[in-house]
Protein 1
Amino acid sequence: EEEEEEEAEETKPDPLHQLILHFSRTALTEKSKLEVDHLYMSYADIMAKSCHIQEEGGEEEDEEGVELTFEEKEMEKQRLLYQQSRLHSRGAAEMVLQMISACKGEQGAMVSSTLKLGISILNGGNCEVQQKMLDYLKEKRDIGFFQSVQALMQTCSVLDLNAFERQNKAEGLGMVTEDGTIIKRESGEKVMSDDEFTQDLFRFLQLLCEGHNNDFQNYLRTQTGNTTTINIIICTVDYLLRLQESVSDFYWYYSGKDVVDEPGKRNFSKAMAVAKQVFNSLTEYIQGPCTGNQQSLAHSRLWDAVVGFLHIFAHMMMKLAQDSSQIELLKELLDLQKDMVVMLLSLLEGNVVNGTIAKQMVDMLVESSSNVEMILKFFDMFLKLKDIVASDAFKDYVTDPRGLISKKDFQKAMDSQKQYTPSEIQFLLSCSEADENEMINYEEFANRFQEPAKDIGFNIAVLLTNLSEHVPHDTRLQNFLELAESILTYFQPFLGRIEIMGASKKIERIYFEISEANKTQWEMPQVKESKRQFIFDVVNEGGESEKMELFVNFCEDTIFEMQIASKISETDEGEKSEDEDEEGENVEGMEAEKISSAAEAPSAVAAFLSSIVDFFKIFTFKNIRKKYRKIKKMTIKEMVMALVTFFWTLFVGILQFIYSICSGFFMIVWNTLFGGGLVEGAKHLTVTELLASMPDPTQDEVHADLPDISKAEVEEMAVQSEFEDQAKEEETSETSDAKRESGQFRMSSPESNLGLGDIVESASVEPPTPEGTPPSFRKIRQQIEAQVETKVEDPLQAEAEKADTENGEKAEKDIKEKEVLEQPEVGGEKAEGEGEKGEGEKGEGEKGEGEKGEEGEKEQEPTLAKRVRKKAKQESKKEEPEAVMEFWNEFENYKTKLLNYLSRNFYNLRFLALFVAFAINFILLFYKVSQLEDEEDFEGTGLEDDMINAGFGNGNGNGDEEEEEEDEDSLVYFVLEESTGYMAPTLKALSILHTLLSFLCIIGYNYLKVPLVIFKREKELARKLEFDGLYITEQPADDDIKGQWDRLVLNTPSFPHNYWDKFVKRKVLDKYGDIYGRDRIAELLGMDMSALDVTVPQEKKPAADNSVLSWITSLDIKYQIWKFGVIFTDNSFLYLCWYMLMSALGHYNNFFFAAHLLDIAMGVKTLRTILSSVTHNGKQLMMTVGLLAVVVYLYTVVAFNFFRKFYNKSEDEDDPDMKCDDMMTCYLFHMYVGVRAGGGIGDEIEDPAGDEYELYRVVFDITFFFFVIVILLAIIQGLIIDAFGELRDQQEQVKEDMETKCFICGIGSDYFDTTPHGFETHTLEEHNLANYMFFLMYLINKDETEHTGQESYVWKMYQERCWDFFPAGDCFRKQYEDQLG
């Protein structure tokens, strides 16, 4: 049954295929013209939208502001390819061609929908769809398609000036209503109404050749096998010429007007968008290069169209730049100019010296020389403008701190620079935009034109450079080069060029842009070190292929290292913006200080505290960083002047401080003794004032539970300002009410204990009410309650009021709580007070009934307090996580900056640590050995701790052990001998500093070099997987620890993490899956097959969870274990760990710091070579030492058996010291003494003269001397010396090769030095190592669909790991030696 179901499914027809087949038959049966089919248009739109996943993703990305990762973009691309394959496999590609052929060259909605569908299935340059369309056209010999395309191009409209004028005139005469005009503009535009259709047509033709499809490029020019041939290339040029002429007509129409009005802008924008698409199509026709299409264009009227556009560019740029409202139109014009220059560069692809196309291009430039000169002058003016306005000489004329300058000062500043002519200065002033005060924002003005000028100016520089090298002896071109000298000079540092062996086996030159950031990163110390090591390791390698393989690996590693350098580097723009922010903050702070000082004079204590706070603010991280940047920008002279000024200011400050102290003390004494101030003050002091200032001891009981009025006053100050207007209105009534309430309170409470302060009528402190609050405060509280109730009822109240009342609510909350606690205690007294108070309040008109009002207020108070408390809790809950997140974000920010700083200064930290190690060891030279009979001699000297920490001679320094060992008379100590007393604390401080530096070096290395180590290992493993089939076709050896360890990371989801090819696992699966089974390989690589299914829509990732638990669960444990294994087998990391360990042990015994002096051998290249000489022949050296040990052992056996009596080393005959009574002692004696003796073992034992074994001893001694001393030790010395000589020769050979032979082509300097500086020019400009690396970086970062023909060729060879594009043994100069002269 299952088999029958499968067969039924297989025989079931595909609805989509049937639908496409139906539409195809309809197109093929149309004889006269294509009828409108709404069903077809609907389905065509649906199918087109199904292939727009990538574009929709881009829109979503823009809307949400979330950038897609590389993996997500690749998945979108795979899904797009799947949808395109799903359509073209069912005949959609053929249907598009049939529909276009059936339209017979008539525009309409059917053709428009067909073009959009064709664009969708070809989007991204789908090679399969291209090939299917080409096969169909060749097989069917369908000339109707090309005839329809030709007719469609002829019917495509251009700008019609007559229709435009008629339309404007009709609108001006009022022949149409305003509403009718709007409808006409939107849906019935007469001028170039089919601009969208025209763009779709040329976009479709462009996509047919996308990816440099040479077969389709040639077929568009010549339909081989057809009876009729239509050259689509020429048809495109014909339309471009028509379009150019119409744009020229519009330009002349507006040339007499000051500005281009809105209808003119709209029509210019339409024409420029269409022209942009036509130039892009022409570029795709010829890139590759397609020489046939290049020649076809060269012999067409393309040059006339280009000359016309150059005229439009030259004059419209000057016109549009002078009005800020025309800037958008100017940018569109510059974009069009950029695309035209790219098309001209594509014409020169694969060009030869003195080629036809290059000469024709020079002729075209000469024909429009005046226009080209205007364009060059335009870009020259705005390219150097930014550097000029940033100069100090220009800023001397800027007086406004806001960055504004008057037109008059701007003209004077430009005149002083001597860079512009007076007419150019007037043009710049006309381009600037001044405010109502005739002031110009010069920075904004310079930036407005800088980026467009750089983009197009670079392409123009590339075009002129290319022409100058392919047409070397044309005097007309030299004139243009002289005019463009400043532009060429400006872009010279960023213009990279390399030479490759092209597909035609000819040397071709490629030009590309090098960013300033990349050039800066290339000069980083870590990159320089990698470059030096690579050149030393590679220059003497074998063949060219192996050398180029290593060179490309070095380029990949360097690119990754430069990416790390870009991450850890601080950009100048960021520093400038931060400096500007800091300056802005300082200005705001100064203004705030002025305002606050004007508002109220601070007290002496407050001024003193603020001065202390300001002093500590100097040492904040932000301020220190700002001062550090300022110091970096200072010259030596400025630094010296700053130091002198600092010490002078410090000296003057000390003198002023001493003077202030002395004068203040003198004034106090004088005023106290002779001023009479105390006596006069006592005379005017009244009893009332004295009593009012005294504390009231009788009110302790009453006031014990009352709130602190002074504290409440302070807290209520901010709240009271909110009700300032109401308080002013009721000020008089409040005063009288307060007095009356005060009297009533005292009368109604005769039982209360009255103090002295209550009797005095002039007491200024308001008495508390029964609720414990002063009446004025109760009024303020009532106002607060009303405000809080209003806020509760109105949830849409502005957030600004919340901040104003927050402090008031907190104070009110404290008062309410205390009132609630006091209510049960006061009882009857409260009731009386309330009644009397109610009567008083009746008179005031605040409440209808006194007691009821008070009871109502009492009932509302707990509810209101709860409400306020609840709201405060909610606000605190909201503020707490925000504050925590802000703190952690700030912490992460500073942590990243610190780690980046350590990474950037890793080599400086190493040098500083070495310097500190030298300082420590210098202090260690002052240690001496001291023997003391008793430890009591140390008491009171302060050296006990130093002796214990420094160490001791006999191996123990503890008091207990000294008491136990009675035989020891004294102990030996290491004592620091000094008379100053500063060396011991200095030694401790330096020790701590060195340990800290060692730890920071490990951190810096972890962020600077460890990612590169992981990248190299991942790249090596990925390459072995993809190209060698490791772990699939073959397994690593059992003793290959590295290979077995790498097996651990294969099936982890994080691999590869640092390596940029994230889809290497998928490539391996596609390459070996059919042979070895996809499931088996997917299991080996840890791949989820369901995740590879592009038919399943990708779900959006949930919001990132920053909790610790989610971080732990998302951690890839196996990958981290593998990563730690790789790190801890890195030699440099292990060396730094050893360095750190020795530094830590130095705190136990300072003499451990002596080991750090060996770091000088690691840091100095010459000393590193000496160390390498020992390890260079390490295996042979160890084998020779092993042989030496064996030979000495054989002699030990002979001596032990026959010559023991000669090994007495004691001079006392009664107590002999026999060195050969046991085998171990005898062997060690031979190794230690015999090998070191100049004459062998015979020099160290007794003379055999007269002994019965004399002859045997002579043989024994001579053979030991000959074999051990003369041969084996000489071999060991020879190995070390030969290794040193070999390394030295290798370094000299590397230096000689780099100075006399090109690394890329291998040609010697003798060939190039026939011209002055020929070899230097060749290695720095033509075959520069850095430029090849920059070019590879340029290709990796560039979208494949935007590659030129040469770039696509190199990229394809690179992906196949084929290095034939390197010009080994040849160069451009050698190939065209005759033409170059």
Note: The chain is about 70% helix and 0% strand.
Protein 2
Amino acid sequence: VQIELGDGRREHVEVFALFWLNFRLILSQFSDTGMIGKDCRLTGSLTSTSCCMVDLSTCCRNDIRKYFENGYDLDETLFTSLKDDSCFYYCPDRLRLPLIFYYGHPAVVLVNKLMLGGLLEERVDPEIEALMETGVDEMSWDDTENYRMGGNFQWPSVQRIFEYRAKVRKIVLDIIDTLPLDLPITQESPWASIMQFADKICKAFGTSTWIILLGMDHERIHFETSSVLIRQLPIHMVEKPANWNYGPIQSPNGPIHENPFIRVKGSVVKFGKSRDFPSFGWDNEYGEAKLEVPSFEAQQFPVTNYEFLKFVKAGGYDNKGYWSAEGWHWKEYRKAKHPTFWVCNEGCKSGCGASLGTYSHCNGGFQNGDNGNGINSHNASNGERCCSSFMYRYRAMFDVIDMPRDWPVEVNYHEAKAYCNWLGSQYRLPTEAEYRLMLGRELNDSTCFPCCDMAFENDPKCNINMKYCSSTPVNLHPSSPAGFYDIMGNTWEWAEDHFNGLPGFESHYIYHDFSTPCFDGRHNMIMYGSWASTGGLASCYARFAFRRHFFQHMGFRVVRSNLDASIPVRLVNAEVFVLGVGVERNEPLLENVNDKYLPTVNQEFSYDSIECVNDIILEQFGNIDESQTDGVCNADTSAGLCFQIENILSKAIRKYNVNTDEALDIGCGVGRCSFVLAKYFRKVVGVDFGGRLIDTAMKAKKTGEIKYLNGDCQALIKIDDAVDREKVSFLQLTWLPNEIGIFDFILVSLLHRADKAKGRVHPAVISSLNTDTRSVTVEWYEEGETKGKEIEIEQILALNPALLASAKAKLARKIPAPVRNIKNENETPSMIPSPRKVNKHEDKVAEPENHANNHANNQANNQANNQANNKPSGVPFKPPLSRGNSNSNIPSSRRRSNCVKEVEKLKKNRDERRARNAEVIHSRIDDGDAPSGPSFDFLQMIREYRESLEFDEITMSDPVLDHQICVCVRKRPRNKKEKNRKEIDVITIPDKYTTMVHEPKQKVDLTKYLENQKFRFDYSFNENASNEIVYRYTAQPLVATIFEGGMATCFAYGQTGSGKTHTMGGDFSGKEQDCTKGIYAYTARDVFILNSQAKYHNLGLKICASFFEIYGGKVFDLLRNRKKLQILEDGKQQVQVVGLSEKEVKGVEDVLELIKIGSGIRTSGTTSANSHSSRSHAVFQIIIRKGKANKLHGKFSLIDLAGNERGADTSSANRQTRMEGAEINKSLLALKECIRALGRKGGYTPFRASKLTQVLRDSFIGENSKTCMIATISPGMSSCEHTLNTLRYADRVKELPSNGPIPQAAPLPDILEQNETKKSEKESPTDSKSSDLALLCSHNDDIGSDDNGWLLTFHETVTKLQEAEEQLIEAHRAYLQKEKSITDIEERMLHEVDTNVEYDIEEYSKNLDTVLSEQMKSIGELREKLLRLQTVIQEEERVSQNLKKSTGQS
């Protein structure tokens, strides 16, 4: 573009800027083709700095745009720290969801709120917006992600979420650029031009830029909470983004030597944000509280790492007296020994979830420098400035660094409170009112707006708003006007107050449940932001809270006050019923504060009271006499509503030909209508948000009875015996989970009321929806008959104001994923997200009131939330009007609403799905292969899941990669037994790297679901892969290794009957095996081909083979009729198999003959899985020797391992089985550790732990050693547990980072370190074997730490038993040999006596005495070894019983 001089310059520059902006937007739409690597996670720019808040009284459109893009960019920048896409699917915290959820959730909330506010007409991606709308706020600290979510499920790809975020960015920018902007922006700012209905509705349901601002600050909340989750990831999964600058370790003001208490003079404190303050605020910030604060003393600085270290060293984590009951319970559960982000070398529990459940960042000694990321830029030369001498380090966001002495310690409330109790009874945490005094700012004077709030400062004098990208020394910045350091920023600080609304609190209808669910007395306030707090979180008015066990960038400081002084604290007294737990006791954590408890402002908690449940029982069943036992038949007053519903239902089923498969009862109360529906439907699901209600309904299902109070007496109601209660299941509803599925009939209760002609308000149901006349037909039951009338929608809305917000929410949800606002339910603020579930079907629930919602959608009533306690009524589902001719009267020119279109689409999808299911059922029946009962339901779920996958199976044309350690998986086809049992296939291999297990599960309410577990390996082979293709990618690349002087090993590992022997030896035909089609034969073929090449032919190589098995810790030569062999170490510490035969082979035929001989006598047995089951490890070795000296040149060991399920038999009642299982268990553990040591290059190799690893020792050492493991798995549902065990074992064999440095080996016991490094000739193999066993047990992640001691003892005892057995047998054999020679001597002596009459009787007696003495000595030695064996046998019996008890086996 040419830039003209003069007046034309500015115009051309603006044109160029506009062009560049449009070009950027175009790029953002096609960024998936223009970006690579982690840049593809950015829809904007990489940034680690934050802009300040927007002044809503003076801002322009560009200010809002800049604020939005900065927050959006910050969040995306954070996710570029994940090293690869797989990291998105890990759970850094077992109480949270995988990181992919938090990458997409903020954009989803933006879209959903824009839809709710009417600023967006079309959804971007309904599936993502349903899946990622709501997170998880656990009700208990041990409430796991799997429990809340109902199991794992398939999350969208990173690329799909990236594309979604790019679209949302463009949508929001377009809205910012086009909507009218009226200043000042407030919560009530109307944008009436958006609304397209009557003026009165527009005024009632106005919206504003508040929605956009809400979405912006919601994203900034998740930027901070996601930073904490990423900080909890294993260090090798993250790397620091560019320009992410940690704060200084040291302050120029010097170290903190003491933390003095500063006295604060008491006064009256007012706090709360004025509604005319020109910034965005969350609902809980508004209102005004007034408290009188007595004088108190508070620490000048937050508690530092150095200070908290004294508490740790004093045994603070071991002394129960310092902890509250709730805190001690948490501490014991987490096995906490120090703050979460401290790093020691004791393997402390990390708290990660799912596949990271066994991870600990405290997993090793300090490595003198970097921890794998090349960082450690904060190593302090001065020991005074760090705590490295105290054996703790510090986990920063992306690195492990030396302990920053003067940074604030980061702990949860329980740890902070224990520290206070350690100091003494007069110490506690500050309160919110006391923090307001310590801040020393006047926040209530409107003349100071907005400069009184630090969030508007471009360069705040504190560590907040991403000034630094970590904590900083607590004395780095100036103090507050009241003399306190770090009151704002660095870390949040815990307060004693419970979270509650201020006087005058009102929730905003756009996000009515942001705060209220946390007003439960179990969330404590946190004050004044952290280094990662940006935007509204950096405001002096911010009010946030977390559960007391929660982790965030949170620290604390201590207050000292007179024990008799009044504490200015605001506590909440709320009874919260938790399903399955009951009412959780809210332990008093302060003394003498009984007068400080306030009622919660969340009125929904009161709805779940005992009195309310009793009222609903009466409402649903009628006010019956206590002697009456059949309440279902009672038709008194509102209880007759069930008759009305049943009447309408029966008519609807006939009229609309409703399918009677599944029904949903939303607002089921104690379940009466659900039981009525069970008369007509195969399956009924009842949902309600009240925990007590669902608890009562579940008890009614179990016992057939409901107990309630009728006056002063307890009455009993019995459910009609004609109802099949097993058809009904009940779920607690805080939203409508996607996994609930598609229903044929939906009953919505507790919502609608109609105005009767007599002028009274009466419960009624909507029987039809008339979109053309904008009216509904309602019916009710009165005086023994059904009556009805037609009412305008506006009149319904006027009588039911709670429907206004709900109606708009329904329109916003084209696919109505979670049902929110139905009951003003207890959802959770997004900063502490609540759980979300996944639908097993692609379709979503079609809600009956969508047509009415299309009109009600545009009305508003900001008082809706205050009127959510209306008495229940019912709304049956009437099929959409578009199904039949009910829309025929609508003019063709009339534009149909999006809601109507969506319902039609849902119907079409549902019909297509049913047609597909019918075809599947028909085809399966035709094949004679259709499972019945629950298995068929699981089969359908698996088939639907597979339909969403893209398949790319491995072929012979794919490249072969070079791996030192190659781990792959092979799935076999279903065998004849599985087909006869009609077992379903639960294994899916969608591509060449991925293996998925669909584990069928069932919840306590009998709901079936799949837990889809995903594993990634070097190669994955499906059931169609032949032995040849498996060989190509596994053993074939290793053949060249042995010709280059290396060692190669190939293992087949898996459950009995999973195809190990088939893979290694060849195809079976009955009991006959075709050895020409196995890996043994293919390897031999390629060995002879390579040997014939000129490169190796001239070396004079000789090819030999040996074949032996290892069974029960003994080695047998399979080429010498199972002759027993000995394993010894020579003077050079080389392992030798004494007596092992080697046969020279000239061709493949010779090899096959040896394999046939050895396989025929290999130890085997019959199991339920296989009539010819391998019970030993079979080792076939191809050995290359060079020259006349037969020097070893290379060796290829091919091992068919024993079935891995036998390793679990260590507590069997049969000793032989125990011994066999123990040896297999030990050898498999040792094998895993040896392969891992090979990958670590230089790590200690515990080869002495088992005979298998002893004989293969030379294959695990040296640079030129390569290994391949083939994990074979069975596809059937009955083998699912064994399959998962196999996959987990294989997954752990190769726990190496995908890039970056390989982690160092685990620390060794001193004796191992000394023996291995010095190669001492005095090394004791027995001692090393014992130490190797200890190392194996300590690395056995499958067994809890409490069981490791018994496991180690058991293996040591079994080893002693084997040694004692060997010694006794050898002694017995030696005794017999000696006895034979003694017998010869005795026979000669007697011959001398018989033939020589002059024999010397004295000499005879002396010789006989000598012989008998020798015999007695030999017998004594033999008996001594016998007694030792018997003692060890008894010891083994005792230890096995203890092991059985420790593992909970019966």
Note: The CA atoms of residues 795 and 1034 lie 74 Å apart.
